[in-house]
Specification:
Shape: globular
Largest sheet: 2 strands, antiparallel
Number of domains: 1
Number of strands: 4
Strand order of the largest sheet: 1-4
Strand content: under 5%
Order of helices and strands: HHHHEHHHHEEHHHHEHHHHHHH
Distance between the termini: 60 Å
């Protein structure tokens, strides 16, 4: 048995062991398990069944992790991504008014495009042709978007007729626990405690239970039915001109986030040779893009690689056995639906705020000296949360980028990819 596992995952070649890979997989799972609580809460606000989304999240993540481990042999965990699930719920369904079935259709089409780019040279062309500042800005803007949602759901930030926004009431148990959850996660993270986020979420849930703010619903149960969301995507409904910018947003945020995550994890895991070539990168990208397509069948927003996988790598994970372990743990998690059902929104708000802050770290790599590159990036970062739309924020950033480049006499420095996306978003503003 051990010999077969060694041959499949090339454990000896990567100087690792079964025990070490299992430990790494458990570490990765603990660091990203918060998604099984957060994703159903966010997606259910679009009208989707929360129990079905919980099961769909676990199944989509499990299958994606198993594929990543068996096909690409990478120590990377995958699950529905943060940020795009919020864009799905609050912008596409909430603001634009599309049914969640159509929104799933848009995710499916974005996944198909991502897969095509992964098996052709289009991926490299697009990544190289989008200015680095704008790529960084997309991730940071999505981070602020997530953080804003977390502050809102926790009652830390509330509406104010005089100032638009104001500070919430910390005499409220819910608001206090929300802030406490964030602080608990932060302290644990600073002390490098594995699973800081999931500990924070469950800790606040336990406190809410002790304060009789929620009712105990059990620990283990038969999984809820997946039927309310299974195969409910409306692909034809997504063939709407208004959905072009939505599909592009799903596609490019996922593309840049995935590429950055995979390259970062590959470097940590020693999957990059002396010439800079990354082992099985094409296979890893194919799995990631396929996972986004697969996830729509279960009712999930884009499934993507998690940067939290680096925690498993630090714990010794070097092969796909780490990912397979994560996949089995996600599969096991479907039997803990009562816990997921108990977790209140203010228990997950701290997790959202913490993840948001981490996503802002990319801003240190912005080119702060060249204003024609910096200003459009800052516009994206600021306008994504303020418009409550990833698509609108990106659109305003690219439009300002083209304007500044043309106005400053740098017309020849505008890449074909930047022109393409600008025309897409300009069409949105003109005709919609």
């Amino acid at each position: 048995m051990k010999q077969a596992i060694d041959q499949i995952f090339k454990l000896s070649h990567n100087n690792t062991t079964i025990k070490r890979e299992f430990l790494a997989g458990f570490t990765t799972f603990i660091t990203m398990a918060y998604i099984i609580f957060v994703n159903p809460q966010i997606m259910s606000e679009s009208g989707m069944d929360q129990g079905a989304i919980f099961v769909g999240t676990c199944l989509a993540a499990s299958i994606a992790c198993l594929l990543m481990g068996l096909f690409a042999n990478w120590p990377v965990g995958l699950a529905p991504g943060m940020g795009l699930n919020a864009f799905f719920t609050y912008t596409v369904v909430g603001q634009m008014g599309y049914p969640w079935e159509v929104a799933l259709g848009a995710v499916f089409l974005a996944g198909i495009l991502f897969f095509i780019m992964s098996v052709t040279s289009l991926r490299r062309w697009m990544i190289d042709s989008i200015p680095l500042n704008l790529r960084i800005a997309m991730g940071s803007g999505v981070g602020l978007f997530i953080g804003f949602i977390g502050l809102k759901s926790g009652g830390i930030i509330v509406s104010n007729n005089a100032t638009l926004l104001g500070l919430g009431d910390f005499s409220s148990y819910e608001t206090f626990l929300s802030a406490l959850g964030f602080l608990l996660i932060s302290v644990l993270a600073v002390r490098k405690v594995p699973g800081a986020i999931i500990i924070g979420v469950l800790g606040v849930t336990l406190a809410a239970l002790l304060l009789n703010l929620i009712e105990f619903q059990g620990v283990v149960a038969y999984p809820p039915s997946l039927a309310p969301t299974l195969m409910k995507l409306d692909i034809l409904g997504a063939f709407d001109i208004a959905m072009i910018s939505v599909i592009m947003s799903f596609l490019f945020v996922n593309l840049f986030d995935t590429t950055g995550t995979l390259l970062g994890v590959a470097s940590r895991a020693g999957l990059v040779d002396k010439d800079g070539n990354v082992s099985n990168l094409d296979k890893a990208l194919k799995v990631d893009s396929s996972a986004s397509i697969l996830g729509t069948f279960f009712g999930c927003s884009p499934v993507t690689s998690y940067v939290e996988s680096s925690a498993g790598v630090e714990a010794g994970g070097r092969t796909g056995l780490t990912s397979v372990t994560v996949g089995f743990l996600f599969l096991l998690a479907i039997f803990f639906s009562p816990i997921a059902a108990m977790v209140p929104a203010y228990a997950t708000s701290g997790a959202l705020i913490y993840v948001a802050i981490l996503m802002l770290s990319g801003m240190e790599n912005l080119n702060w000296k060249k204003l024609s590159d910096l200003l459009p990036a800052l516009i994206i970062i600021v306008m994504i949360p303020l418009t409550f739309s990833i698509a609108d924020g990106i659109a305003l950033g690219f439009l300002s980028y083209i304007t500044l480049k043309v106005g400053s006499g740098e017309f020849n420095k505008i890449t074909s990819g930047a022109w393409f996306l600008t025309l897409v978003f300009l069409t949105k503003f003109i005709y919609l």
